[in-house]
Amino acid sequence: MDARTCLKKLQLVGVLNMATVDEDGAPQIRCMSAIHYEPDALYFFTARGKELCKQLLRDGRLQLSAYTRFKESIRLSGKAVPVPDDEQIKWRDVIFTEQPYLENVYPGGTKSIGIIFVIKGFSIEYFNLGVNPIFREVYEVGAAVKSKGYVVGEDCIGCETCVSACPQRAIDMQDGRAFIRQQNCLHCGNCFEQCPTGVITRR
Ligand code: SF4
Ligand code: SF4
Fold first, then answer.
1. CATH of region 150-202
2. Predicted local distance difference test score (pLDDT) of residue 146
3. Atom of ligand 1 nearest to the CA of 192
4. pLDDT tens digits along 152-172
């Protein structure tokens, strides 16, 4: 798997969940399909009067997610900004050409209420629950990613309690110490709770 394939899968799903945060800090989520995909950027259309536009102008951070029929969860995290004024019409025309239903929603000159945002510099988390063991990976597209999950500290005594506690058998023993295979970890936290010495920490 890689970032480009994930973007292709998002494009095939077509309608994505888009999450932002409103001025009260409450989560806001809606469906979004007016999207144009480039290998390293996503362009999308909304209207200037919508809450989504106001939220993005205040804080462009957002997440897009989709779930495929193969039990793949794909989540993109990034920051959206309006494209420059002299590129608005160009990208709007691209999106309206690719998504003809938009002409029905915003016919003729009414589409000028639209605004095009672009997401450049993002990360994609790929999480496949349809394979055994599960598989996860994070891809950076021009943005650094904060590591998540659990790690085993140097003071591990090698008791192997965590090995039998792991639902995905994602923990190996190496040189008498436990080691978590991050690509197979659910982030469920069972090893963290069961470890008798507290050497497993959450990043
Ligand atoms: S967090 Fe869950 S899946 Fe990951 S290693 Fe620990 S027990 Fe296994
Ligand atoms: S349960 Fe804790 S101490 Fe025991 S092997 Fe796992 S990490 Fe090490």
1. 3.30.70.20
2. 82
3. 6
4. 999 999 999 999 999 999 999
Tokens representing 116 are 């095009």
Residue 32: name the closest of 62, 68, 57 by CA: 62
**Right CATH for 3-141 from 3.40.50.1820, 2.60.200.30, 2.30.110.10, 1.20.120.1730:** 2.30.110.10
For atom 1 of ligand 2, which residue has the closest CA? 195
Give CA angle at 74 (12, 164), nearest 5°. 140
CA distance 79 to 63: 8
Q: What are the tens digits of pLDDT across the range 124-157? A: 999 999 999 999 999 999 877 888 999 999 999 9
Strands (E), 13-142: 16-21, 27-32, 35-38, 41-47, 61-67, 72-82, 114-128, 135-141
β-sheet bridge partners, residue 139:
124
**CB-CB contact of 68 with 54 (8 Å):** no
Confirm or reject: Cβ of 190 under 6 Å from ligand 2.
no
Domain-by-domain residue ranges, the chain? 3-141, 150-202
